[in-house]
Amino acid sequence: MNVLDLARSQFAVTGSLHFLFVVLTLGLAPLVAIMQTRYVLTGKPVFERMTRFWGQIYVINYAVGVFTGLVMEFQFGLSWSGLSHYAGDVFGAPLAIETLVAFFLESTFLGLWIFGWNRLPKKLHLACIWLVTLTAYASAFWIMVANSFLQNPAGTVLKDGRLALTDFGALLSNPSLVAAFPHVIGAGLVTGSLVIIGASAYHLFRRTAEREFFRRSLRTGVVWANIGIVIAVGAGYAQFGAIGDLQPGKFDGAAPGAALGFMIGFANILHLILFVVLLPLLIRDVLARSRWIHPILMIMTPLPFMIAIAGWLAREIGRQPWVVFGRLRVQDAMSPGLTPGMVTLSFAAFAGVLGMLAIVDYLLIARAVRRGPGQVALGAAEDGAPSPAPALAL
Fold first, then answer.
1. What are the E-state strand segments in the chain?
2. The pTM is what?
3. How many angstroms from the chain centroid is the CA of residue 52?
4. Which of 65, 72, 56, 70 is nearest to 21 (CA)?
5. Domain-wise residue ranges, the chain
6. Cα 133 vs. chain centroid, distance in angstroms?
7. CA-based nearest residue to 68, from 32, 25, 4, 131
8. Of 16, 58, 239, 271, which one has the greatest count of Cβ atoms within 10 A?
């Protein structure tokens, strides 16, 4: 492989690994907030325990995922300085907003939520997790603004060999952004819900003592997975109109076409299973008792991750040979002086670090799931304080 192919492969692999963390974060945050809202409104202990248990899964994924974002930042400076020189004044603006505003606010509110258990008033504590959710979505929004600019450099003009922003509103109303952002939100909801469904099915299949806890968790996952898949599929098809106008022939190549066949095919299969099989069983209130389907639900857990990666690859590969569509080619965006050996070394280092973090994330989440809600440190009562009431079969 030449240096260009190596650099492209490096970005594809590391970007895909990073997105695994992002899509789960976007899915779990609102679901945890909804669980805590139900606890504050009803006062039922089972919803508090659900909030603490699934919130701990969210915190694990967020904490490990933060480091993967740093690797992505390194790549731009190391391998793609041509992009920074040509379009940094435009492309860097939403990334800076995402880092300085959304990311730091999200971290602050998450810290208040983590350490505010048993300290903050219930409603103020609830507000913290909703602010975590909103800032997580704000972070995703600004990332999608930057990505949509690469797909369609709206609101810019060429001055002295560099792109300059002339219309910030055009950047925010980019046709490439309008349907893409809801699509990402829907994909996140499906991913977070399938993790909850798979983990709940694991415990229900094992017939653990926490049957009521995981019955309610399974119900929550199925309901929001159906909502998420409708948003994701609807927004996904809505993007085709804009793509046809902005990038005709985007999916004509073998690689983007295959990624798009995979994404559409498996998304439709998942939609069919959720709507035709799981939702009727849930309405009849027999899903938790239908032990035959629980292994299938466990096997389905990785599916939304694979669909999300396929969708991201289709969106990015189909833009080739452009980094900034119609303005800057990939080979012109690369940093000068790179050699195959240099890129191979950084590729191995970045992929190794992200791969290790992905494995650590999986092992930590799997261990937390196996332990169940009875061994959750998040929100546990301090020594000398009364412990939360156990979940009852309500």
1. 156-159, 162-165, 322-324, 328-329
2. 0.92
3. 20
4. 65
5. 3-371
6. 12
7. 25
8. 58
